[in-house]
């Protein structure tokens, strides 16, 4: 299956070592969450862990987020030929390392859409496992007539809700965003999650600001967003 430089960027969203308030709640986290981690949390209910997206749409969004992580870590770029490796240096994260190995294992380059389809097959489970290792999710088993089912449920509701609350707040207030948050907002747009985030009286102005946020992204990240939107749209058309 489907194989670019960029200034230093951070792919991780660090929570302060002190406190981060959300209303009356407080978050504690010294280990950073990566871009795909936060997209996963937005794409799943913060109380039950149930998906907010069709499985294929979630898969495409997470696949795009994983490729964006590698771009932010200066391992790949995205151009007209597809996803191009710019550095084979192993990323510190195990999942990112696995994705990079897939890219390096191909003798020829493949279009972005091929990589979204390939990585999207397992990206939901892959990111859920990474979040479980980080202690953000836990596996819950339920007995049914047909056997035991496993699901991933947030350990702390406030932590799971924070990415969605943060992005919604910054779009509503039209405040500047760092590059990872810009990409996160763009992926919410591409997958349709944004409809559940911007719905009040400020929605129109927030959507205008979101369009500018996406337009300000580097070309490789804008390409990932547009290819993700196309893939999700085709999934919706097929279902319809």
What are the main properties of this structure?
two-stranded antiparallel sheet; 9 helices; single chain; alpha+beta; 50% helix
What does it look like?
This protein has 240 residues and is of the alpha+beta class. The chain has one domain (12-239): yeast vps74-n-term truncation variant domain like (yeast vps74-n-term truncation variant fold). The chain is built from 9 helices and 8 strands. The strands form 4 sheets. Strands 1-4 form a two-stranded antiparallel ribbon. Strands 2-3 form a two-stranded antiparallel sheet. A two-stranded antiparallel ribbon has the order 5-6. The protein starts with 11 loop residues before the first strand and ends with a helix.
List the helices and strands and how they pair.
Elements: E1 12-13, E2 20-22, E3 25-27, E4 33-34, H1 35-42, H2 55-72, E5 76-79, E6 82-85, H3 94-104, H4 112-120, H5 123-133, E7 137-144, E8 147-154, H6 157-173, H7 179-191, H8 203-215, H9 219-239
Antiparallel strand pairs: 1-4, 2-3, 5-6, 7-8
Helix pairs in contact: 1-2, 1-6, 1-7, 2-3, 2-4, 2-7, 2-9, 4-9, 7-9
Quaternary status of these chains? Answer: single chain
Please identify the structural class as seen in this structure: alpha+beta
Q: Tell me the number of strands.
A: 8
Low-confidence stretches: 3-10, 13-27
Q: Helix coverage percent of residues?
A: 40-55%
